[in-house]
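Entry 14. Ran structure prediction on the chain below.
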Amino acid sequence: MDSLDDVYLDADDKMSKTMGFLHEQLSGIRTGKASPALVENVKVEYYGTPTRLKELANISTPEPRLITISAYDPTALGAIEKAILAANLGVTPVNDGRVVRVPIPELTEERRKELGKVARRMAEDARVAVRNVRREANDSVKKLQKASSITEDDRDDALSELQKETDKHIEQIDQALKLKEEEIMAV
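Output, structure tokens:
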């Protein structure tokens, strides 16, 4: 790192990517209603290549508790059905030869609690990742100060600024988790 601005930009970029990844992970957790996000990142073995489902098919939710998957290549329907079963999402796809229908069953109280634990674990992993980014950035700032590129006051200000940025991202993670838990527990 050449300057404090580089350290700030790098840390903010990495923390933002962590948030994006968390949102993507949380969108894959099944709630009581159908969402294309539940299946769109499922890997399907298509001509020997693992391919994301959203690249092979049109995914829609015509009803609140039903996902329909229309493959661009009808010969891929069997592979799509197998991939959804293998993804262990707690749903059973039905292949009628033209489309794959994925009915979304009601969640039991026990399953809701399990999904809440999964969401909390994902959020904790994101918090740890954000803190690791802060630690790396702090180390970079201290190296800049040791190399006499910045003063001690600049170092202290930078460490304080990085802590504020970390707190902001942790708060966003907590907010995303709270929303997901509410969505999971809504009957």
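The helical segments are 4-27, 53-56, 77-86, 109-146, 152-185. Will compare against last week's run tomorrow.
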